[in-house]
Write a structure and sequence with these properties.
488 residues, alpha/beta, Aspartate Aminotransferase, domain 2, 2 domains, four-stranded antiparallel β-sheet, 15 helices, 38% helix
Length: 488
């Protein structure tokens, strides 16, 4: 037990609360329970209040987070939902996991939380150890450098910067110093100091809403309309026919079509002196509709990048930290060498990106924010990684995912006019409906029956459960989905 002298009463009460939490976590419900309309009267009242303060039309429900537990979300009206969306794929251990509630129950952890440091100027004395012990211990193969960031979008923004710095360093060769012309022109956003370089992304991609990231987001107009953007190229991403085993020839041709277009764009941009410095791609396009591509596609894409001297950035903001059944989604692709940069956030609780040592900037302050991440988040992430190991959660994801995917395929056969194109890895799954209208009705009816899900793309429903989602939860979901489909 730790002791702090002359601690204010309000701080002592917080410490006592944190200590007591591990024994007061509510038991996970046996099944969903919906008592009111959805959203209920309290949620509607709160929405009205919030909407008077800000634009709040995106809000679906208000949570009673004191009573959420495990795989169950409890709203302000007391309704209990099986949550297969988990804060947009962001809750690795579900709600109120005992290990996370106890994470700040010692003085060092608590002080790390409240004395939030400017990590790239005044990091804690144990920060290098934490980066090595926690983040680099789970890094993709052969990636030795890591930078923490606040969110997914700023992780992408700074990964792009790293790629640009690397590309320009290659162009300069042995000359490390910037020229006076470069120093002057960068201040007025002109070449050569602000070079005409680009990041290529794919149709359907989502890489964030900050300005640089937004220029590579290609999923929905609502994210981009009225915002200035860089004139950066976009390539087609494979659109497969399903089931995969019956459409292998078509899908191989689709891979080839997209890869040929990637090569053509890279060559054209290089010839007109507007080169692409990096390609960014998701292992599974998430917001854009859960579009997947084959291991062969990603292997060839990496080969093209190496041949053309272009950095390959794998955006693992949604797929990282286990939901596909592997720690990193790109591990399914058997790449012959690691990607150049891998971004993360969401289930990782902190944002950031891994790189190979080749992408480490030569100068300080080039990758910089006051709060480049949060040391308090790594304390939580350490507990997440312990739980993944001790509770064998990647195996849990694989087992639950098998039950879930097999069950969805059975429903696909039974209700073939309502759902189709079941796809994904682990519990990172999705299916389509024939129209957006049908998709939205299914999703809304699931919610009325106690299941929180998410939508993506033009007509897809996606599943993003926590890593603690087990076979019994999969069966509950499948039973409720079948009821909804039967009553369409």
């Amino acid at each position: 037990m730790f002791r702090i002298k002359k601690v204010p009463e309000n701080v002592l009460s917080v410490i006592k609360l944190v200590r007591s939490m591990s024994v007061t976590v509510p038991k996970e419900p046996e099944k969903p329970s919906v008592k009111t309309s959805v959203p209920g009267p309290k949620s509607l009242q709160l929405l009205s209040e919030l909407n008077s303060i800000q634009q709040a039309q995106s809000v679906q429900l208000f949570g009673d987070y004191d009573n959420c537990t495990g795989n169950y979300f409890v709203d302000a009206d007391g309704n209990q939902f099986l949550d297969v969306f988990t804060q947009i794929s962001s809750s690795p251990l579900g709600y109120n996991h005992p290990a996370l509630l106890a994470a700040y129950a010692n003085s060092h952890a608590l002080k790390s939380l409240i004395n939030r440091s400017a990590l790239l100027v005044f990091p804690p004395a144990d920060w290098p150890e934490k980066l090595k012990k926690i983040l680099l211990a789970k890094a993709p193969h052969c990636m030795t450098n890591v930078y923490t960031m606040m969110c997914g979008a700023c992780s992408l923004e700074n990964a792009y910067k790293c790629a640009f710095f690397w590309y320009r360093a290659k162009q300069r060769g042995s000359k490390l110093d910037f020229t006076p012309e470069e120093l002057n022109t960068c201040m007025v956003n002109q070449p050569p100091g602000s070079p005409d370089l680009a990041v290529m992304s794919f149709w359907g991609a989502f890489h964030g809403r900050a300005f640089g990231a937004l220029s590579t987001t290609r999923s929905k107009w609502i994210h981009k309309i009225d915002c200035p953007a860089f004139d950066w190229p976009v390539a087609p991403f494979p659109r497969y026919q399903y089931p995969l085993h019956e459409n292998q020839l078509y899908n191989r041709q689709e891979d080839q079509r997209c890869l040929e277009e990637v090569s053509k764009i890279l060559d054209t941009r290089l010839r007109c002196c507007r080169p692409v410095a990096a390609i960014v791609v998701e292992p599974i396009q998430s917001e854009g509709g859960d579009n997947e591509a084959s291991p062969e596609f990603f292997q060839c894409l990496q080969q093209i990048c190496k041949q053309m001297g272009v950095a390959l950035i794998i955006d693992e903001v949604q797929t990282g930290c286990g939901p596909t059944g592997k720690m990193w989604g790109h591990e399914h692709f058997n790449l012959p060498s690691p990607p150049d940069l891998v971004t993360f956030s969401k289930k990782m609780l902190t944002g950031g990106f891994f790189t190979t040592s080749e992408f480490k900037p030569a100068q300080g302050y080039r990758i910089f924010n006051t709060w480049s991440g949060d040391p308090g988040k790594l304390i939580l992430l350490d507990e997440v990684f312990r739980a993944i190991e001790h509770e064998k959660l990647l195996t849990t994801v694989q087992q639950a995912g098998k039950v879930l995917k097999n069950g969805l395929h059975e429903l696909e056969k039974e209700f073939s006019t309502a759902i189709m194109r079941v796809r994904g890895r682990g519990t990172f799954l999705a299916f389509c409906s024939p129209t957006a209208k049908v998709r939205d009705k299914i999703n809304n009816d699931l919610r009325k029956n106690g299941v929180l899900g998410g939508i993506c793309g033009e007509k897809s429903i996606r599943l993003r459960p926590a890593l603690i989602f087990k076979e019994r939860h999969a069966n509950i979901y499948l039973d409720i989905l079948r009821k909804v489909l039967k009553n369409l």
